[in-house]
Amino acid sequence: MDALKKLHRILIALVVVSLASCSDKLTETNIDPNVVDPAVGNPNMIMPTVLATAATDYLSKGWDVTAGVVQHIQHDGWFGGINTYEWGPENWANYYGMLRNNAYLMKSNQVFHQGVAYTMKAFVFGMITDLWGDAPYTDALKGEEGLFEPVFDSQETIYRGILSDLQQAAELFATGDNSGYLAGYDTYYGGDPSRWHKFANSLALRYAMRISEKLPDLAKSTIERVYSSGVYIDTPADDATISFVGSQASNGWPYNFMNDDTGRSNFRRRKPAETLMDQLLSTNDPRLPVWWAPVHVQWVADGSLTQYMDNAIRRDGERLSVVSLPDLTLKAEIDAGHKFTRHFNPALKGANDPTLNTNLYVGVPVGVRLPDYHNGNPTPGQEVENQHVSQMSDLYRYNTDQDMLKARIISAAEVSFIFAEAALKGWAVGADAETHYYDGIRKSLQTWKVDGQYSNFIAGDGVRFNSAIALEQIMTQKWIASWTGSTEAWMDFRRTGLPALTAGPNSPQPVLPVRFIYGDAEVFANIKNSQDAIDRLEQNAYSNQANSQWSKPWIVQGTGKPW
After folding, report:
1. CATH: 1.25.40.390, 1.10.10.350, 3.40.50.300, 3.30.420.40. Which one for 3-244+405-496?
2. Residue of 440, 441, 423 whose CA lies nearest to 432
């Protein structure tokens, strides 16, 4: 669908919601002027708001806070919440706002819109329980009935409900009926029930694997049922995504060069975590240069230097009179073909001097005290880039790229990795774990337009399938493939402990967190029910309070995972 038309539809939906308050029936009693009456409202008008809000929220966490947890990124400024999990209470009002909007789709008498509503209800409640734990579910969204303090349902109840809703959605989409749909309002699949059917079934695979340690029989039967149906996302063309129009900051890729503040700090502050960078480098991963840029100034060992680190940089070997240049100046010069280096003499390293990384691609160690000083940065702080650490690639500098810059909810690669893990468990998913594992890698490379290097990549050490470490390999490649959608990698780590991530030295606790902290708005407004949910969290040596990011929710209680 044309990008501008996509933006147009989303804006129409937002206007419709706001104009509902301008009804000329304000004098009538028992009519809320701030909502759309489902009896007369067009469900197409609300649908793009639900879809766009859900996808962009998933992206905003998936390459920010949860990307910090799973060590895809680190920040070298404003780093506490990203690098060291120093989180405060996190409110979920926006999620229940999505669900309130989605409830209007649910009330539609159109089969297609009901299917979309069941699917999005499952996805949004899945995010809530994944991130926080127990939550209002059965009694949620009943404020108009006078229920303002809903009971928090158990995670088991919510996950069972999610799978039930997804099965209901699949049955609706299987009819092929999209009557009542108006072209241009479905920002995921253009009103195609068959592709929505694949999406709903693929989400069922995700949540079935999520509960595989706690409810293995239900997980097994769900995954085997979906596999046998043959209806699931099996090509990147069917990934659940939205792209970005990019005509302005509000509809462009977030935190890019063009949308950022005048100092471009948000773009510069997001750096590759050393954990991810080392993995990509160790296997010569072709996705590396798609996501990250080479350092602007590379360290070069030089035994003739009379001090450990030179106080000037060099352009094409010629020593300049400055130790750094602005990042845009460096980029322009590098784009013109120049090469910048800075010399050091390893023989003169003192006890307090930093160890320098001479690679062309460099990440930031996880959870260090002063990440902006890493790798001998001559300009620490937040105003200038660290010229000796990689930035995001040029892809992420701009507002839009219809092929690459997408909010991706679930992918064909993820589905293949789920089947690979299921095969290891002995479940009936056709091919063996090795076949599904390679399929997952191939589909991820296709997504990032580097599948021409697939054969060489899978032949390399550390990638070539090894049955002795199969689960570790599957989870590692799934972790990499979740780039910009890292919430799923966090959930996988939480239930498997893989990849074997560890907290950095400046983290308040030596282990990674397992949940968000219930927000103050909910705790204070729904005191008894929120406290009951907090009491059901499992406390441990790392729980610094009962409602802690290290207190274990039901989904990992008794599993010994991830720590």
Report:
1. 1.25.40.390
2. 423
